Every structure is written in C-alpha cells, then in structure tokens.
Amino acid sequence: MKNSFPLIVKICLLSIYLIILAGSTVRMTGSGMGCPDWPKCFGHLIPPTSEEELLWQANTEFDKGIIIIKDESLLVAKEKFTSAAQFDEQNWEAYTKHDYATFNVTHTWVEYINRLATVLSGLFFLALIISALFYWKTQRILPILSFLTLFLMGFEAWLGKTVVDSNLAVSKITIHMLVALLIVALLLVLRFKSKTTTKTYKVDRNFKLLAYTVFALTLVQIVLGIEVREFVDEQLKSLGFESKNLLNLDANTDFLIHRSFSILVVVLNVALFLRNSRLKLGFTLPSWILLTLAVEVLAGILMYYVDFPFGTQVIHMLFAAILFGLQFYLLLEFGKKAKT
Known about the structure:
Blueprint: H1 5-29, E1 61-62, E2 67-70, E3 73-77, E4 81-82, E5 92-94, H2 105-132, H3 141-165, H4 170-193, E6 201-202, H5 205-239, H6 253-278, H7 285-305, H8 312-333, E7 337-339
Parallel strand pairs: 6-7
Antiparallel strand pairs: 1-4, 2-3, 3-5
Helix pairs in contact: 1-2, 1-4, 1-8, 2-3, 3-4, 4-8, 5-6, 5-8, 6-7, 7-8
C-alpha cells in the first residue's frame, strides 16, 4: 500500500481537477440549483428524470423527506405514507431553506453528476489516508498533510451544501473555488515529497524571482477572475441566463484590471520560458505553462468578443486552475537545485 501512495496522490489530484471541471460546467449551464436540497436531490438518491415524478399523485407511496413541487413551492414529506384520493397538507411541510421551486432535467443531472464526482473523489482521499499511514515513522509530514487534505475535502463538501442552501450565494461559490485550489496545492506538495526519484536543476536568482512574481500575479488574476465571474452571475440573474450578449463587462472595474494584467502575465511567462531556455536550467514546466496560458487567454478573448461561446467559461476556469498548479509545482522544484 505504501508503494501505491504516489499513484494515489496523482489520482486524487486528477479527481480535484475533474470536480473543478464539473463545477465549471454547473456554473456555465446555470445548473447550480438543479437539485434544491443536499446531499440528496429532491429527496431522492437518484434524481427524477421528469417533472411528473415531482408532482403530487393520488394513491401513491411517498417516503419521508421526498420533495414535491406544488403551487410553485417545495413541500417535504413529514413521514412515509400513502396518499389518499385528495391532497392532505398534514402530510407535508414547506421547504424553508430557499424558495427556488423549478425543475429542469438537464440542470438536475448536471448538478447530480457534479456531486457524484465529489463522492468518487472522497473515496480516493480515503485511500490516500490509508496509504499515507505507512509513512508515519519515516515521513510523518505525508500523513499529516494527507489528513489535512481530507479535512479540506469535508469542508469543501459542506461548502457545497451551503451554496445550495443559500440559493447560490456568489461569495460562497468563490470560497468553494479557492478551497479547491488549496487542496490542489497540498496534493502537489504530497506528490513532490513522495517522489522516489529526484532531479536537480540549475537556478539563477533572477529566474527564481521571476517565477515567484509570475505566481503571485496568477493568484491575483484568479481572484480578479472570480470577482468578474461574480459580476457576470449577478448580471445574469437579472437579465436572464440566455442574455449573455447583453453583458457590459467594460462597466466592471475588476474586469478592466483583469484584462490589463493578463498582458503582463503573458509577457512575464514568456520571459520565464526564454530565460530557462537561454541559461539551460533544465526546467520543463515553463513550456507547459506557456501552452496552458495560451489556451486560457484564447478562451478569455472568445468570451469577451464572441459573447461567451459554449464551453469557453469551463475551459477558462479549468485552465486557470491548471496554470495555478503548474506554477506552484515549479516553485517546489526550486528545492532540488544543483547550483546557483
């Protein structure tokens, strides 16, 4: 089991990026309230596939906790019972956490798949804990960090519940994303410390300073991007989800700063790549960083000039998270240097 630890770390890391991908898809499609309750969906372990399943019906058995839509409101079954010929309100109580009572089968299943991805990831993290325990006597930092990542996964799941209960409060969605990035960082530390082979690099002072500067700017860009996304979400709530062409991003200060900073981030990453190549420092990540950044910038350009084509929001958010991971791991590699 101990020998499997590095592989399990990679699987956990991949699962987090899959969760970010699924969460981005939920936001892109407006499916965040596809399941109005948590952790079940309309009180079911497996979501309904048609609105008829959410309507009251005579002579039908309802389990405790099942949610129906009646008169544009959500009602919850108090106990398990079989309905009579007429609706009896004594069997039901109002769902009070929010008043969103709309069913869209696509939104429901997109949100449900997002939750399944989180559950699957949780199983991988349990395996991570078990395998990390074998390092307790030799590298105690590994099980400690593994327990911390598991704790953050639990916290992330709880945040998901609060997001649904608050009817997609934008600030809670932002915290949800930032915690995911923190988990990515911890997993990368685990991967770095558990590597069985090491490679040394030449690092000059300017290259190292440039890498730290670029990473800091990327963090600023991610935070600004989240703020822009909050602005977009709030606008779409009033304009309608299908009215993306009516968005006026130029009226948002965060977007203007975000767009200007992107030019600086590109220039500095190119400089990082060129310095690595010219001095033959041996790092491979600057090339992958440039490629990731190119996809990220292209998706941003398409969102701004072509009114958010389908999929560009998901790509933009996912590659921002990948860029964060690549740049963070580059900083870790400075610990394996041959000479200055």
